[in-house]
Amino acid sequence: MEWKIQLKTKGLNQWILEAEQNLTEVRDLLDILETQEAQLGNVWKSSTMELWEKEFHLLLIKIRRRLKEMQKLILCLQEAACALAQAEKEMEHSIKGI
């Protein structure tokens, strides 16, 4: 009987790293967007701007909330990846003993 085992932890860990980097990039871009919005407020003063600004801030709050939720999910996934890595190590050790 031939055994084939594919270890997936390395790929999963790489994906997690990339996802965390992407979330950081999004947060950085949101910070830049907020700064630009503040500068726009200095130039464009009107009731339309106030309405736009209110909607803008509501959307930012929603986006930041979603980013936090995604970060929590990534942390849970990271914990699962650690458990998977441990299981893979145990399997490799068991196979070497066969």
Instruction: Count the DSSP helices.
Output: 2
Give the radius of gyration: 23 Å
Helix-strand sequence: HH
Portion in helices: over 70%
Q: Which overall shape is indicated by the principal axes computed on the Cα atoms?
A: rod-shaped
Instruction: Sketch the major β-sheet.
Output: none
Could you give the count of β-strands? 0
Structural category: mainly alpha
Explain this structure to me?
The chain has 98 residues and is an all-alpha fold. It is built from two helices and no strands. Helix 1 packs antiparallel against helix 2. It is rod-shaped, with a radius of gyration of 23 Å. It starts with 8 loop residues before the first helix and ends with a helix. The model has no long low-confidence stretch (mean pLDDT 86).
Task: Walk me through the topology.
Blueprint: H1 9-43, H2 47-96
Helix pairs in contact: 1-2
Key attributes of the depicted protein:
rod-shaped; mainly alpha
Quick rundown:
The chain is an all-alpha fold and 98 residues long.
